[in-house]
Design brief:
- There is one protein chain.
- Helices cover 57% and strands 5% of the residues.
- The protein has 178 residues and is mostly helical.
- The chain has a domain at 65-178: TTHA0068-like (Hyaluronidase domain-like, Orthogonal Bundle).
- The strands form two sheets. A two-stranded antiparallel ribbon has the order 1-2. The chain has a two-stranded antiparallel ribbon with strand order 3-4.
- Helix 3 (57-67) packs antiparallel against helix 4 (71-84), helix 3 packs parallel to helix 5 and helix 6 runs antiparallel to helix 7 (137-154).
Length: 178
Amino acid sequence: MAERGQEREREAVQEALELDLELGPRISAHAGPRRRPVIGKVRRGEPTTRCQEPPSPALLQGIAQFNRGEFFEQHETLEEAWIEEDDSIRYLYQGILQIGVGFYHLLRGNPRGAAGMWAKGVRLLESFPPRCCGVDVAALIADTRRCMAELETKGLRDFDLSLIPKIRLVPMGPGRTA
């Protein structure tokens, strides 16, 4: 009976966080107790007025980790920000997080997990303008799609790791930079 309850809890967390089960136990084993997101805060695709704001410290930290190839760490950083956020900007964090998790899977030999997470991340980011919170969203989408095509055509063994993107920050407007 207890196993059944644990399985239901694992499935609920899995669904809420949209992570592959293979990654979930590894994260849980390292991360300690997991906080659950408040579901229903905002819906995906709802417009945000916050794209003109500078990136939050958590977003900057997550981007720096992503750009250093620290995909597990960027997941932890951006997940915390995603869970805490009550504006639809949270889906920018989640989209970046999912793309990073895709690279985590790729580097661990799980092409199916990589492709699935990239697709989820791209879908989330497509609802944002080309630039949001200083992030060049359009470039990240294009770079990730290039990786998706590379993986599909060449497979895991011949995947060109130099295609792993860096998230670019862009100027925010007159006198403001990301």
